[in-house]
Amino acid sequence: MAASGPRLVVDGMNVIGSRPDGWWRDRDAAVRRLFAGLAALAAERGAGITLVLDGRPIEALGEGRHQGVVVCYAGRAGRDAADDRIVGLVGADDAPASLVVVTADRELRERVEALGASTSGPRELLRRLDRLGER
Question: How many independent structural domains does the chain possess?
Fold first, then answer.
């Protein structure tokens, strides 16, 4: 299946944190839930999804391609580490105008839009993932 629509770059912890569902009690489980939804979306769309996460890699979800989703981790600890990784990915992309960065972070939005990418908030993505999960 050919990729349908723009390529997504997902600010993972920002998307997870946008829904107060108790994710903080088990961060790894929250990451796995988001990843599972994105993998289902990648299968539907024909891939084109990158998930960028803060913190240490979680077991069985190291950096690299998994089920059609490219998983990346911030290259360092500290404030804006994942944001800097996302900006680096967008800046290095041959076609940044084909990217949509999913985040609610206003400063990150400004940084990637200056590089030519579009942005979208987490709400639309989460609704789509919820619909996929209902199937």
Answer: 1
The answer to whether residue 1 sits within a structural domain is no
pLDDT of residue 43: 93
| C-alpha to C-alpha distance for 20 and 12, rounded to whole angstroms | 14
Q: Is residue 47 part of a domain?
A: yes
Residue 122 sits in a domain of what CATH number?
Answer: 3.40.50
Domain that holds residue 12: 7-134
How far is 55 from 133, CA to CA, in rounded Å? 26
Low-confidence residues of the chain: pLDDT under 70: 1-5, 47, 135
